[in-house]
Structure formats: C-alpha cells, structure tokens
Amino acid sequence: MSARVRILKTNLFLLLVFSQCVLFEPKISKVPDAYVREEVMNAEQKNATRVLTDKIIKLNNEVSIQRKANTLTGQAIKISLAKVTKHSAQRDLARSKETYFVLKEDSASSKRYLEESQAHELERAKEETRYKTWVQKEKEDKAYLEMKEAALGELIAELELVRSEIAVKFQESQGKTPADPEYIKKEIYETQYAEKKSDARRRVSDWERVKTEAPSLPKVNLEDSFDDAK
Q1: 0.90 cut: is pTM over it?
Q2: Distances in Å between the alpha carbon of 155 and those of 8, 28, 88, 158?
Q3: CB-hemisphere CA count at 13 Å for 124?
C-alpha cells in the first residue's frame, strides 16, 4: 500500500472515529488534510503514521467490542433485578398462604407453604448476590471502557502531532511562516497530546481504584441469572 493511499485511509478512519465516539468533548483538533503531504514526509514520519494508524484501528475495535459488552451487562442487570423482585413476590405470597393455613389449623398445608417461602427466599438471596455482582461488573467495565477510550484519544492526539510536524514542513517548503494566519502551529498539537496523555493516565488510575474498592462478594455464576429455573 502506498503512503498516499495509507494517509487517505487514515483520514477517513479518523473521520469515522470522531463521528461515532462520544468521548472526545471537546473534539480533538485535526490537522487539515491539505497540509499533510507525502512529498515532505521522512521515513520516520511515514513509519510513525503507519504504526499509529494500525494501533488506532486495533484499539477502536476493542472499544467497540467493550461498548457492546457494557450494553449487554446493563440489560443483564435489569433481568437480575426483575428476578429478585419476582422471588420476593413469590416468597411473600407463600408466606401469606402459610399464615392462612396456620389460622385454618391445616398443618400440612402451612408446612408446605413454609418450605415454599423458604425456597423462594433462598433463590432471592442467591439472585441478589448475582445482581450485586452484575452491578460491580458494570462499574468496573465502565471504568475499563473509559480507560480504553482515553487511550484511543491519546493515540489519535499523538498521530495529529505527527501530522502537524508534516504540515509545518510542507508550509515551510511553500515559504510560509508563523506570521501567516493559516500557519499550522505545532504547539497546539503538543499541548493537545499532553492533555490526552494525562487523561489516559488518570483513567488507568481510576480503573485500578474501582477494582481495589470493589466489595467482597461470594463467587457466583452470573449466567444463572438467565436460567428460568433459578
């Protein structure tokens, strides 16, 4: 693949990333494509553009997969909570029936509903533990996604910094100077990259903190939340 075609693909990809990713507020400043010219790129810049683009594509795919996983976890939490509510209602119903048959002095029936209410309470307690585990998973996965998104922002900002260096070289080859109103200022992209890098480090710390602060919960099989028999 030629460098020119790769740069074009990079530009198109970045446009797609910016249009789909809600992370970047404010959006990352992009170097105008017209200033990123192959003829002024050295070998190091060509390689950096290629390597960063490949990393961005890979990480963007990981972010997309994690977003879908987080959506599924959110739906699982709704299912688990509904099951907790169902078991609570079934327990309460069985307890009411037990009381009725106690008053009726029907010991066999009252015993049956006592055992039934205890069974529903046991299932409720189990599902409540699964629910708490789902909620904790959602919290950790949210922090993990934010960490990945921040890392993606850092990579894109780094690529834009490289592109700004290319743009400066092209402008200089055209006799442009920093005094020209449309002159690309590398400093803007250096600051942007530093900010995104700092944010990425902060998100790593946030994710580690969320994991460290996680409550101690019994080991459970989360897939049991989807078992109608439980």
Answers
A1: no
A2: 18, 11, 49, 5
A3: 15
CB 156 within 8 A of CB 28: yes
**CA nearest to 90, candidates 63, 121, 69:** 121
Helical residues (DSSP H) of 21-106, grouped into ranges: 43-103
**pLDDT, tens only, 46-82:** 999 999 999 999 999 999 999 999 999 999 999 999 9
**Rounded to the nearest 10 degrees, how much is the dihedral formed by the CA atoms of 23, 140, 51, 186?**
40
Can the peptide bond before residue 26 be classed as cis, meaning omega within 30 degrees of 0? Answer: yes
User: How far is it, in rounded angstroms, from Cα 96 to Cα 87?
Assistant: 14
| Cα radius of gyration rounded to whole Å, the chain | 29
The tokens describing 51, both together, are 């390597």
pLDDT tens for 5-57 read: 444 454 555 555 444 444 444 478 899 999 999 999 999 999 999 999 999 99
pLDDT digits over 207-219, tens only? 999 999 999 999 9
3-state secondary structure 166-184: HHHHHHHHCCCCCCCCCCC
